[in-house]
Amino acid sequence: MTTFNRRDLMKLTGTAMLAALAAPKAIGAMASEPAKAKPVGDPLQYIDPELRPAAEQVLKFTADMPPLSMEGLPKLRAGGAAFAAPHLPEIPVEERTIPVGKGMPDVKIFIVNAKAGAKRPGILHMHGGGYIAGAAKWEIRYVQEVARDLDCIVVSVEYRLAPETTYVGSVEDNYAGLRWMYDHAAELGLDPDRIAVMGESAGGGHAARLAITARDRGEVPLVLQALIYPMLDDRTGSTIHPPAHIATVGWDGQANKFGWQSFLGQEPGVKGVPAAGVPARVEDLSGLAPAFVAVGGVDLFVQEDIAYATRLLEARVPTELLVVPGAFHGFDRVAPETYPARLFTTSKLNALRRAFGETLPAA
């Protein structure tokens, strides 16, 4: 059986950190009414047996955490720094600040594994954190590993968080990072015809939104949108409630409602929510970059992610969908040596390799 200890818990950066710290508590000040309660028996009953030790430790770790609320956000954000893994010294990282646009503050980006004179593929990465927390600087080790494994460049954007900034600002931050990456391809040793966007959880939602923006503006071609358990639909946890066995570990419906209300600047799940902030509400998905969508079978986002992948297929967008049975939100980051996590990560990296036109490693 795979063991799980405090060292593994330290891997709860970005997506997984917030999933653990935010749930399963009640929401706090922003919700006008509580999300629908779901009866839960044994929260581990539908978790893959190999993932149960990790899931159990996450539940123990979060048992005494305070509720997710506006008042608690500063502490939640500050606490994430303790979970950042040390950088890989052999993979270079450069920090820059780039302009976003008229009337908007500049945004910080991290350039990982650039090599002038080369012509390698690249990924524009957006971190997770429910739209309200997380930081690109805490995810550097993770993106270094991706850059190393794929021999590619990664640019990670320190986009502005909600509720201080709604989707209007963070979408522009991420697009500025993508456009800068494309325009500086020669300097970075980047092939401008082999750029993908990728993110986890809220970062996956941002990646989906960025793929839509790139299509609509027609300035930067993309070869793939890698959506890793993406946060796509504001109605989940607001007007749509998953079955009781879903989201028993990690990010849940109440936390999701809080994140979306912060991100949108209005009540989620109701009529009139702007599609500009919610990928699942965008009516026309045709012409988007090919997609890789991956999610755990008991992740809060499993239904919305399957639905989005289905709509992409119906819109004639080449789409690969991976659903890992019994896997909870962020499982691959908490228990990376388990079989479900290795399957998940290998599938993700191979989807990127195929999009980049690279040869897949021998099995």
From TrEMBL:
Q: Does the keyword Signal apply?
A: yes
Question: By its UniProt entry, which Pfam families does this protein fall under?
Answer: Abhydrolase_3
Q: Which domain of life is it from?
A: Bacteria
- What is the annotated signal peptide range for this record? 1-31
Q: Matching InterPro entries, A to Z?
A: AB_hydrolase_3, AB_hydrolase_fold, GDXG_lipolytic_enzyme, TAT_signal
Q: Which GO terms describe its molecular function?
A: hydrolase activity
Alphabetized SUPFAM superfamilies for the sequence: alpha/beta-Hydrolases
Q: Entry's Gene3D superfamilies? A: alpha/beta hydrolase
Q: Which residues form the Alpha/beta hydrolase fold-3 domain?
A: 123-331
Query: What are the record keywords, sorted?
Result: Hydrolase, Signal
Output the PANTHER family linked to this UniProt entry. AB HYDROLASE SUPERFAMILY PROTEIN C4A8.06C, ALPHA_BETA HYDROLASE FOLD-3 DOMAIN-CONTAINING PROTEIN-RELATED
Query: Per its record, how is this protein called by name?
Result: Alpha/beta hydrolase
